[in-house]
């Protein structure tokens, strides 16, 4: 077996070292709650009666008699979101499958699931990031009945899966399996969709053409097929061992998808504390699992949003992950996949070319994954296989030895790039991240005068007024978690893309987020400390020379340091009151959120919850 890469080993050891005390306190907490019998036996008779009252007769008898384990289902079902609509039928599939192996399954609770695709560029996007933490809290309410021996988490999209993971880890004595729905079939090719968006931004096609392209792209039940945060979530759940092997990208509504859902229910029943193969989520998700997640993210060119989510998930398990960990792992991880926005293909093409099984095996053989990391099914070694149906029954076989399409998926020793393309950027303007995997090498370094905008709307208005036909670095500030909840600024991509295509040198610097579909424009994002808390971006003025070096990881300001420090910071003045659409209800989150490099979370999970 290939030895573990020294950098992977070093990053893992330093996460363990910096997290020693908080991880020990966390493990003490979850181990103290390991049930000695079925969880509901701790409840009083009236509690148990309430917990069983709505069940079918056979399940009620087993709950009251304490004869079978009980699996709690947390579901993000709603039928507005294409990715979550398939979950409507999952609870009955799970109940039937559990009954076959002498277990009970109950929907413990539902969680909100908002779609960034619907709210992109709208006021509702200001709730998006904090919905992750609401989902974690809502999941905790469902599991707080303390009547469950294992949990199944049904979720797919951007903030939903990280929120579910945070809750699963705070109930870390429970075995937890994540159950996805899969991507929709391929629609309009992603490069064509981007072309129409840019033409619309230039006023060269009308709204009818734009709507037609968008509807042909997002056209059926399942996850959007580009490799944004939702599909990055599914990849991460798999390399962390929280899925069944090969579950990530099987399409909804297929016999194989139904078989994987049934198998997840039955596996959950098999790994409870009452059996011989207890696999609590809080012990399964350790430093090795988190390093595997980051390596997988880098190898596939995944979403920049996970520079927020992985530290937040880690903290829930008493572990501290830093941007330096991301940068060091990115440096040694080859980019093995070209999926939009890093290429023209979608996740269905990736899956057909060999998918997760091929990727995991290649990374293991390259010494870049902890093959001994525990998973809900064995160790990560089991995840170099792919599921299939054999005479109608679910089985697994080795993943393909050779990629089915080398334009989409390549082996580790013949990768698209020698590194994963995510950079930590640092300098006098703060710390952030820059995703360069989708940026042409000649566009990765931009030095130009700053144009400062306090809203994304102001930048778009300047573009429409033809005021941006020049080289410049757009500084879009007051977009961090404390300012307005850190909405994605994906709507700026077509505008900046048009300007770059016109031959101008353009870049973006912001304390906000871009989409998981961050594309061809060099962008320093998640810059902290944010402007609303007096960060350096609040002192930048039009005309200041900024140099963004995506290769070297530098964010420099060519202004006299003493003169810059003497400037009064611009005051955060929202262009509209943070009210309406419930935004006023999230004021507590904006005030309590940590900095972006710590996950932009209001929670401070340190071990037992101190």
TrEMBL record:
Keywords: 4Fe-4S, Carbohydrate metabolism, Gluconate utilization, Iron, Iron-sulfur, Lyase, Metal-binding
Single biological process term from Gene Ontology: Entner-Doudoroff pathway through 6-phosphogluconate
Domain Dihydroxy-acid/6-phosphogluconate dehydratase C-terminal: 407-600
Domain Dihydroxy-acid/6-phosphogluconate dehydratase N-terminal: 69-379
Function: Catalyzes the dehydration of 6-phospho-D-gluconate to 2-dehydro-3-deoxy-6-phospho-D-gluconate.
Entry similarity comment: Belongs to the IlvD/Edd family.
Protein name: Phosphogluconate dehydratase
Organism this protein belongs to: Hyphomonas polymorpha PS728
